[in-house]
Amino acid sequence: MLKVASLGSGSKGNSTLIATEEATIMVDCGFTLKETLKRLERLNVVPSALDAILITHEHQDHISGVGPLSRKFDIPVWSTRGSLLSGKCGKLSNYSVIEGFNRFIIGDIDVLPISVPHDAREPCQYLFNADDKKLAVLTDLGSYTPEIIELLKSCDGLLLECNHDEDMLWNGPYPYSLKQRVGGPLGHMSNSQAIKLLQSIIDDNLKLLIASHISEQNNCPDLVQRSVATAIDWPLGDVIIAEQDKGFDWLAVS
Ligand SMILES: [Zn+2]
Ligand SMILES: [Zn+2]
Questions:
Q1: Other C-beta atoms lying within 10 Å of the C-beta of residue 167
Q2: What DSSP letter does each residue of 83-128 carry, written as one string?
Q3: Cα(118) to centroid of ligand 1, in Å?
């Protein structure tokens, strides 16, 4: 069984777990070591059970805990060359270099890095395949490409960034330059962008939908749930929210 959980998601830290009976993968670790251990315990995961940490990109909310966690428990890290060369990932003794759209295997999980438009050196997000199920995890992207649309079709599970409501962002308190960055094509996905992407990929396979990286200033979880569920006519109850503090508990991709 393929399953997914979150230690937390948002501008103060992101970390997602993907697991089968055989392998457990962590995508990003944007929390302090102490906080990470606390959050792993909440999900009943001991750090030594982690087979890999995958980096999406070098922004602090994704990598601040990667070095300390990987060094303390000797967990191998997988990253693009650009993220490593940014010099922001800390000292890593055990790492492998990956490239966008070149798949690799961890245990029984097939991993495909998806190159995405975002303002980092070589950002990627990930598509996981195991037990005949397909799960995509996309937390930071300012826009989407035809390749992304193609790869997200027929997914069984999708964790997708719904960062901001466009009106709240542009009428909100951020300085203009930050509004331009967040709202630009290399920034973060708005609710309406996420909805448009969902509308072009949704089919009967999709059973698990999770909204992530929700801005505390420029969005609200209720609005995401309501607007997304209505726009895509989501029949399966709530869209799950990956919360900053609580993340979400283990969910099966079925
Ligand atoms: Zn980022
Ligand atoms: Zn981020």
A1: 12
A2: HHHTT-S---SSEEEE-TT--EEETTEEEEEEE---SSSS-EEEEE
A3: 7
Find the 49 Cα to ligand 1 centroid distance in Å: 27
Two structure tokens written together for 224:
């995401």
Quickly count: other Cβ atoms within 10 Å of residue 24's Cβ: 20
Superfamily of 2-253 according to CATH: Ribonuclease Z/Hydroxyacylglutathione hydrolase-like (3.60.15.10)
Please give the pLDDT value at position 238: 79
Q: How far is the CA of 63 from the centre of ligand 2 (A)?
A: 10
pLDDT at 54 over 90: yes
- CA 233 – ligand 2 centroid, Å: 28
Is a pLDDT exceeding 80 seen at residue 102? yes
Our measurement of the distance from residue 53's CA atom to the centroid of its chain's CA atoms, rounded to an integer in Å, reads: 13
- 42 CA distance to ligand 1 centroid (A)? 25
Q: How many Å lie between the centroid of ligand 1 and the Cα of residue 167?
A: 21
| Residue ranges per structural domain of the chain | 2-253
* Positive or negative torsion for Cα 33, 34, 37, 38: negative
The residues with which 157 forms a beta bridge, in sequence order, are 135, 208
